[in-house]
Design brief:
Layout: H1 3-12, H2 36-52, E1 64-71, E2 74-80, H3 88-103, E3 115-117, E4 123-125, H4 127-130
Antiparallel strand pairs: 1-2, 3-4
The structure holds zinc ion.
Zinc ion is lined by residues 107, 109-110, 112, 125-126, 128-129.
């Protein structure tokens, strides 16, 4: 993901993406720009769920993203599982699964509708970028 989009995510969700140097986040967001909206929405929804469960952003239990990457054509968003209020882990799992499924319909390059292409490895791409 390009620098400007990555910076926007890090700036808007500093608690979710804290201590990047000690996790795989030191490699940055390992997916294409086309998934920016999806990653942004997922980050926002995870933080909203944490807030609803009564956590404060300064709390060590606040969700901590360890890695964002593409794998087998879909979005993988790894969140540290600490001791959290009951129900929050389940809620985060639902959100991550929903985003994974959505990523299989969004071109990783440009964000237009896409499909899983398996010609050369696996990638979710629009007709234009699948060529
Ligand atoms: Zn595309």
């Amino acid at each position: 993901m390009n620098e400007a989009l990555s910076k926007k995510l890090l700036d808007d969700f500093p608690h979710l993406f804290r201590d990047q140097n000690t996790t795989s986040m030191q490699h940055g967001f390992e997916c294409g720009d086309g998934w920016f909206d999806l990653v942004y929405k997922l980050s926002r929804d995870i933080e909203a769920a944490a807030r609803e469960s009564g956590l404060s952003p300064d709390s060590p239990e606040w969700p901590w993203c360890r890695q964002v990457k593409e794998k087998f054509g879909s979005l993988r968003f790894i969140v540290f599982a600490g001791d959290r209020p009951l129900g929050l882990d389940e809620r985060i799992s639902e959100l991550r699964l929903a985003a994974l499924n959505q990523s299989l319909q969004i071109c990783e390059d440009c964000g237009k509708p896409g499909v899983l292409v398996t010609d050369h490895g696996m990638a979710t791409l629009c007709p234009e970028h699948a060529r």
